[in-house]
Amino acid sequence: MRHCCVIGGTGFIGSHVVNKLSLRQMQVTVIGRKPIPTRALPKTVRYAAGNFGDKHFLLDALRGVDEIVHLGYLTVPKTSYDDPVKDILNNLPAMVILLETAILAGVKKFVFVSTGGAIYGKCREIPIKEDHPTQPISPYGISKLTTEKYAEMFSQIKSLPVICIRPANAYGEGQKPNEEQGFIINAIAAILRRQSITVFGKTGTVRDYIHVDDVAEGIIAASTSGKLNSCYNIGSGVGRNNNDILAALYPFAKSVGLEPKVKRLPLRPFDVPFNVLDSTKLIEETGWKSQISFEEGIRRTWDWCYQKHKKGEL
After folding, report:
1. In angstroms, how far is the first alpha carbon of the chain from the final one?
2. What whole-number distance in Å separates Cα of residue 184 and Cα of residue 177?
């Protein structure tokens, strides 16, 4: 039985990956920083609490592990912009230690979930393919790209098979608002709380929104069927600005007697204006295909948030 270790497996995307791996009858270990998992895990999943930058802890946690899916990252674009040094120190040293320890533990495959947004920077063409120049304009994008380069180096120099994955903007059930990212979840939460929704610029940035279930399936597809030492985008191929998202949410808000309130601020320097991904490579090489339309995904996300709000949990 294949044994997969998911680092960051209690996070938004990671928890969906863990649930899907568990349903595939895989042996799964989750590494998280909290003593107790912040989300419920399947009963068959082993949980190891510790710092993935601690080599001694990792050697024990990775015993018998065949592959690692690494989703653990401690910053987002805004926090990295606020403190670039913290972004480096919180992420890069731990990543290098993790790569070194993966080799010592005999791990056969290392899957790094990077970013499909910040890593490309201001795009030359839409949709963006994997061979598009990488010119990030935020410390977050730079450190993610650096992390990819470290993984590539370990692949070439120390023969650790690596796959890098660049997902678009994931949204959906289980995402938490007020974490400095995720326009859809934060907009829904603001509507339900009768708060203002902040939009930077006249229409906001254009993003490729893809449901978290499709992202999780894409990660597993790349891990299972993708070519080693390759990089894959995961996206819908459709761009929507913030005004488009608000227009999609308006009927749901109206159905419960609420009116979205919008506060507009100037564009931020670290926000990429346009980002839409081309997932052709993943589709052709693994057979993955997005299954959840934007209309279905936005409805599911609203319904989940609305129920959580009624229970006082949002």
Report:
1. 38
2. 9
The Cα–Cα gap between 313 and 290 comes to: 30
The answer, yes or no, to whether the previous bond of 84 is cis (omega within 30 of 0) is: no
Q: Which residues of 24-44 are buried (b: 16+ CB within 10 A; e: fewer)?
A: eebbbbbbbeeeebebebeee
Helix axes 84-104, 139-158, angle to 10 degrees: 20
One-letter amino acid of 228: L
Among 34, 19, 13, 170, smallest CA distance to 4 is for: 19
The neighbouring-strand residues paired with 261 are 196
Cα Rg, the chain, nearest whole Å: 19
Cα 182 from Cα 179, distance rounded (Å): 8
Which residues fall within 8 angstroms of residue 307, CB to CB, at 6 or more apart?
A: none
How many other β-carbons are positioned within 10 Å of the β-carbon of residue 230?
15
pTM given for the model = 0.96
CB 241 within 8 A of CB 203: yes
Q: Provide the residue type at 176 as one letter.
A: K
Do 50 and 29 touch, CB atoms closer than 8 A?
A: no
Identify whether the C-beta of residue 187 lies closer than 8 Å to the C-beta of residue 240: no
Q: What is the pLDDT of residue 206?
A: 97
> In terms of DSSP H, where are the helices of the chain?
12-23, 55-61, 77-82, 84-104, 139-158, 183-192, 212-225, 242-255, 280-286, 294-310
Give the other-Cβ count within 10 Å of 292's Cβ: 17
The predicted pLDDT at position 179 comes to: 64
What one-letter code names the amino acid at 259? E
Query: pLDDT above 70 covers what percent of the chain?
Result: 100
In a 13 Å sphere around the CA of 13, the CA atoms on its Cβ side amount to: 30
Distance CA(84)–CA(90), nearest Å, equals 10
